[in-house]
Amino acid sequence: MVEKRGTGLWLTHLGLIVGIAFIFFPIWLAFVASTVEQHDIVRPPMPLLPGDKFFENYARALTSGINAPVATMLWNSLVMAMGIALGKIAISLLSAFAIVYFRFPGRQLFFWLIFLTLMLPVEVRIVPTYEVIANFGMLNSYQGLILPLIASATATFLFRQFFMTVPDELAEAARVDGAKPMRFFFDILLPMSRTNIAALFVILFIYGWNQYLWPLLITTEPEMNTIVMGIKQMFPSGDDFAHWPTIMATSILAMVPPVIVVIGMQKLFIRGLVESEK
Amino acid sequence: MATVTLENLKKSFGKTEVIQGIDIDIADGEFVVIVGPSGCGKSTLLRMVAGLETATSGEVRIDGKRVNDVEPMDRDIAMVFQNYALYPHMSVFDNMAYGLKIQKVAKPEIAERVQTAAKLLQLEPYLERKPRELSGGQRQRVAMGRAIVRKPAVFLFDEPLSNLDAKLRVQMRLEIKALQRELGVTSLYVTHDQVEAMTLADRMIVMNAGVADQIGAPLDVYADPATEFVAGFIGSPPTNFIDAALLDGERAGRIGIRPEHVRLAEQGRIEAVVVYAEALGAETLVHLRAGDGQQITVRQESGLAIPTEGQSCGLAWDSAQVMRFDEAGLRQR
Fold first, then answer.
1. Do A170 and B87 lie within an 8 Å CB cutoff?
2. CATH label of the domain that carries residue A204
3. Which single residue of A90, B108, B143, B293 has CA 20 to 30 Å from B22?
4. Is residue A144 situated within a structural domain?
5. pLDDT per residue as tens digits for the range A37-89
6. Which residue in A165, A169, A176, A268 has the most chain B C-beta atoms within 10 A of its own C-beta, making it the best mutation to test that interface?
7. Does the ipTM exceed 0.85?
8. How far apart are CA B67 and CA A136, in angstroms?
9. How many degrees, rounded to 5, is the angle at CA B283 between CA B281 and CA B285?
10. What is the pTM of this model?
11. What is the pLDDT of residues B248-286, one digit of tens each?
12. What's the gap in Å between the CA of A199 and the closest CA on chain B?
């Protein structure tokens, strides 16, 4: 590691502080705007210090919102993000397990087929996916929000790489010990993948939370809106005027859960990224 | 306790025949070591007995029962792996107890059996630790413990000492031997180290390219090797081979003579030049080069004179100690 002293040290810190301020300023403005009244925002110059309407604005956003209460939207987002993250992890673990530990006809073919889907982003297949979900009658439902996004080639690939580093002898030892394949999976492979799962959960939760286009397409009822797309729905159309304090409070609220997940799982997350011990 | 019988056991990977027919009867409680260079098929042979590899043809019988199509766990065997294969997220106790838990052995009995094994292996203070908090020797013991608690009919060892340093290897070797004696469990042990094979085995199988060149008690194999390969592989430093054509009164082929049976003499059967001498204290190894470039090693007592490098010496030996091999490497009697 390079050690810096004197001016160098201060310059480094100055650079970091400027960088952070640069990123943080818009968030700060959003927070300030969520604690003042509508007319404070509309009349320039905009205040730079928080006002005294914090509880009032947030309570209004959470309980009534504009189209739907933000609490409902938060819940919808939470269900969707958890469903996507946990579903993706469960499915990827099982498919990686199948690909690495079982010899079946077409094993390589299936692996490459899964790998191929990496090249198709959601946007490319969104119209046919919509058609399928609509025909299943899953519009405006949690299933509709979660199912099309529940399979993950990336996660499958990551788990495959991890499983391949697990020594073969471990599977053989378990076999001699009398563990059937699924027992080996649950007793040995799953606990060993703990840190990888945690790291992936953080990434996938944020991925699910930040979904915008898909919920926008399939949720037409405000009660089923997720928070990230819900913010956009709050913007006025036509001659209505925007109620900025509520919108800004919603934005801040939308940021909180991912931050909680990242901070809460930070230790495991970093261990999962760097740990190589088997 | 059980006998193990291998009958014309063969294994092919595609078109390559890696095991070309092995026959052996292993008695109850016998310690049999399979020894050979890497790639000779010794691990594959062991894995076929374990059931981790299917036999292409032939039979494996444990206690008289054909087990070719039986899953490893139902063969009543326990295996110790080269890299120990300990479950990294489980404590030492859980590692040893895992097989018993699957067999649905009652909890108090599991605890008792693990305690007994831990005591035997001096692992009692470490039962709550994770494998990564143990030294190499301790991990090795845990792997042994995992095998012991199952009270198997047969122990299978796949090069269990090759990841340990030299000193620990000697110590663990003695422990394994003592343990096997004490428990009296039939054991099959794979190694490429001929010293391990010599010291551990009741009988050893010397494998060469998928064939069992010789099966017998270590000292018999040493004194009376069946092939040129066995004569060269067993014994350190290895047997000297000399082209029969260089010697008077020898038939065609090659002769083998162990380093301890050759002496330096004024008038020898052949002449050789000293390349270098290694004085090891109790003995001296003199390396020489014969006329045709053949390396010859002489092992002599440390009291004897050590010739200087570059000096020409005669080499003499007792005809009774000569082993004669034909062109195919088979022993001629």
1. yes
2. 1.10.3720.10
3. B143
4. yes
5. 877 777 777 778 887 888 888 888 888 777 788 888 899 999 999 999 999 99
6. A176
7. no
8. 52
9. 110
10. 0.80
11. 766 768 888 898 888 888 777 888 888 888 888 888 888
12. 18
